[in-house]
Amino acid sequence: MIKKILIANRGEIAVRIVRACAEMGIRSVAVYSDADRHALHVKRADEAHSIGAEPLAGYLNPRKLVNLAVETGCDALHPGYGFLSENAELADICAERGIKFIGPSAEVIRRMGDKTEARRSMIKAGVPVTPGTEGNVADIHEALTEGDRIGYPVMLKATSGGGGRGIRRCNSREELEQAFPRVISEATKAFGSAEVFLEKCIVNPKHIEAQILGDSFGNVVHLFERDCSIQRRNQKPHRNCSKPPADPRTARLYRRPVGARRQGRWLRERRHRGVPARRGRGVLHGDEHPGAGGTHHHRRNHRDRHRA
Q1: Distance of CA 280 to CAs 80, 115, 249, 274, 286, Å?
Q2: CA-based Rg of the chain, rounded to a whole angstrom?
Q3: Pick the residue with more confidence: 251 or 161?
Q4: Is 215 helix (H, G, I), strand (E, B) or coil?
């Protein structure tokens, strides 16, 4: 039974976890940088401890966070989403120090938290994926070569990214050259990794998600679909939950990610992004929001193009 949790996050995310802990009778420990010392999650938690003056460095230091969890008598660590929520090193260090990591195992994080590794796993599971690079691109020269092979427009993405960050649409070689150093810089600052890859950009997709839940006992279920076609800055301000599909082709979208999820043995709610394909056949897109929920596919028809 978990009695005390260190929350390795900040802001609204941390406040929600603090609230859940209070409802369950679990003590919460907040962390904060100097810039966040007056934040709401610091005031709401049972305890709060400084992780340094730098705005982001402390939140991206797995060893420091786990050591603090041990020092404060926590038996679990909750990463929230973003930051280190899909960092395999954090999960490994938690296991080493006897702290329960509230999330997937390090093995699963390595397989699915890394977008290029996630693509390989989904291909192995028989899930169609968006055309893209086989792995990360080493430099701008390889990126330009791969961009020519894939065909423009392409999406340049941070391998460890999520939440709309570390991603740029590039319509030409010139735009790819300009975006490359920016995405590298943004990815390094936000996720602690400079690795990037390329995927084909699908213009005006119908973005349909199939929500998937799995536990550590191998049980996996889907919660039907939601429409997330309305987006701004690569984020989804509006999600429309529709009824269970009557179309057998749509129902097949759920069986595919459920099978993939069983292969991955996920522990918490997750999501994949899909892109449109002909005749309702969904394919997997390699951009996955850290720590969020479900598996989703894009479908496209002419009536929906201008609404997305």
Answers
A1: 34, 24, 7, 12, 19
A2: 20
A3: 161
A4: coil
Kindly provide the b/e burial profile for residues 129-148, where b requires at least 16 CB atoms within 10 angstroms of the residue's own CB. Answer: bbebbeebbeeeeebbebbe
Q: What are phi and psi of 305, to 5 degrees?
A: -60, -45
Query: Which has more pLDDT, 70 or 209?
Result: 70
> In which residue are the tokens 């969020």 written?
292
| C-alpha to C-alpha distance for 222 and 75, rounded to whole angstroms | 31
Rounded CA separation 209/285 (Å): 11
Q: Note every long-range contact of 181-188, with CB atoms under 8 Å and residues 24 or more positions apart, other chains counting.
A: 181/140, 183/156, 183/157, 183/158, 186/158, 187/158, 187/159, 187/160, 187/161
Please choose, from the candidates 211, 197, 216, the residue with its C-alpha nearest in 3D space to the C-alpha of residue 108.
216
Q: Is 277 helix (H, G, I), strand (E, B) or coil?
A: coil
For residue 257, give the nearest of 117, 81, 126 by alpha carbon: 126
CA distance 85 to 60: 10
Please compute the mean of the pLDDT values over residues 256-271 and round it to a whole number: 50
